[in-house]
Amino acid sequence: MPVEIKQYTNYIINMNYSFEYIDIILLAMIAGFIFLRLRGILGKRTGHQENLDPSFTNDFAPKKKTEKKVSQSTFDDNAKEKFLQGAKIAYETIITSFSSGNIKSVRYLLDNKVFEQFNEALKEREKNGQKSETTFVGINSASIKEHNKENNILEVTVDFVSEIISCVKDKDNKILSGDPKKIKKVFDTWKFSKDSRSNNPNWLLVDTET
Prior knowledge:
Layout: H1 3-42, H2 77-99, H3 112-127, E1 131-150, E2 153-169, E3 175-178, E4 184-195, E5 204-209
């Protein structure tokens, strides 16, 4: 190969390598610029972000610990709706568990006094050889009657209107009360409470009225 052609070929090869290096540098600069822009727009995770769960464990306590009373704006319509969603689930779960005699499965939702009342009623029913048959049809309505905070205790009273089919039978399967074929409308007023200082996230049923 003539010397001139060989030199020209080497020159072309060297230029190609040079362009490849320039391309890599340009791509790195563009990638760095995009990263900085995204970081500025999206921000950095600090480790304090939370996935909020709108459940029955939601709290409507004021954000500042120095506040002694709950303001009406703290428990707004959105907070009430989320609370009632959980309250309705708790209402149905407690009623069906009690009717089936398995009140211990919802122990975490009951205040000690209410748990003992339900448990005593179950013992009395068992002692008399009776059994309860209940079909929970559904909840017609649930509305917050009142809510307040005294010291660190939060309380919410809820009016429930539900439809239930229920009856109580003796050991011979004879119906003592209720009607297994009739839907009955039930009106209940339940009070839920929560200690804002407690690590327990659950609201507890502390009182019932029928």
